[in-house]
Fold:
Amino acid sequence: LLAAGAVIDCVNSECKAGFALVRPPGHHATRNSSMGFCIFNNVAVGAAYAKTQGKRKIAILDFDVHHGNGTQDIFYESDILYISLHQWPHYPGTGAAEEVGEERGEGYTVNIPLPGGVTDTGYNLALDEIVYPVLTDYSPDILLVSAGYDAHQNDPLGGLKLSTDTYHRISENVKKLAKKTVFTLEGGYNITALPHCIYASLAGLYSLKPETFDTPQSENSHATGEVENRIQNIRENLSIYWKV
Structure:
């Protein structure tokens, strides 16, 4: 409850950007059940609260290595925009590109399933080709970010190979695409890397000097090629809804 409340506090804050450093994470929790280390869906609580405060266009970006099945489920028939970049196939097994929402929410779920082994190069390609164009087209009043750092190259629970450079770049870019941006901590299970990943996001969010913690891995050309193929499929699914 305190974790969800911290997200509400960030939504309420007059600051243009905020970061709720909370545990436990939340994006696997559904309306009716807890799972995947998650008890309450903190970011969903924040989004629902923002709606009650008159925010009309609400977006959620989830870059945890695991698909946020709970967040998707909660807003699948809603016009709250949910975008997820995640390793696929991987736990919890949801998040295919064809899952785009239903009824009022059709087109408001954007899944970007990525193959294992993707480095900064392939990941940033997906951001540049799909995520940023969709957010630009939507122009949210508030963007909530499910900031999971288990896609980092040293994390034991994921198979993506990101460096802290990518986390810095994400926050530096998304803060320009919404009137208000609120990050909330999700996964991240390498306790040595985690604080550096968080700092990278904070540095981008608040225009601080980035640090040098790790070295980006060399491009995995096979994985990047697969990302390109998947982007084409995603673009075909989304082009009737968004300018991608």
